[in-house]
Amino acid sequence: MRALYPGSFDPLTLGHLDLIERGVRLFDGLVVAVLQNPAKQPCFPLEKRLEQIRAATAHLEGVEVSSFDGLTVDVARRCGAAVILRGLRALSDFEFELQIAHTNKSLSPQMETLFLATAVHHSFLSSSVVKEVARFGGDVSHMVPSGVAADLARLFNRSSPQGRHV
Ligand code: ADP
């Protein structure tokens, strides 16, 4: 059975990567789908996010990485995936994720959503937190793959990162 792991991945964090590594062990194939989220203005262009995920998952067999447009259930069907994989960090994720899962079920009754609980040590990680820390020159090397850390450093290249006077 194949699964689809959709997200914005702006950028990929070690929390996402942990989910991918565990997901690929559960399924015959896992498609990581970078989807356009109209509610979010991305920091990294689509091509860069695809490149980051491909580099970080190069050691994993059975992982495909692509970008898609449209409804997640349609993307899953096109990929031959019967399951949509999502991650849960905290209660705050649950309400939103449950609403999305129910919406997808109403659109495509055969499609199942599977939630994996975050690894405890990644439970505080989100793409937004990582960007916030990187923007102010903080160390993100324990939060993201090394390639992503380098991209963040380039993106937020600051002449004097710590304690600047504004
Ligand atoms: P979206 O814009 O679709 O929410 P994200 O890239 O923010 O995309 O997240 C994609 C999926 O990965 C979501 O299901 C989210 O809950 C999950 N996720 C994000 N961060 C973590 C983490 N640290 N641990 C486990 N799952 C996570």
What can you see in these coordinates?
With 166 residues, this protein is α/β, with parallel strands linked by helices. The protein has a single domain (2-120), classed as 3-Layer(aba) Sandwich (Rossmann fold). Helix content is 41%, strand content 19%. The protein has 6 helices and 5 strands. It has helices spanning 14-26, 46-56, 72-79, 91-107, 127-135, 146-155, and strands at residues 2-7, 29-35, 63-68, 83-88, 112-117. It has a 5-stranded parallel sheet with strand order 3-2-1-4-5, sandwiched between helices. Helix 4 links the parallel strand 4 and strand 5 (112-117). The radius of gyration is 16 Å and the shape is globular. The model has no long low-confidence stretch (mean pLDDT 93). The site of adenosine-5'-diphosphate has 17 residues, from helix 1 and strand 4.
Short key terms for the protein model shown above:
166 residues, alpha/beta, Rossmann fold, 5 strands, globular, binds adenosine-5'-diphosphate
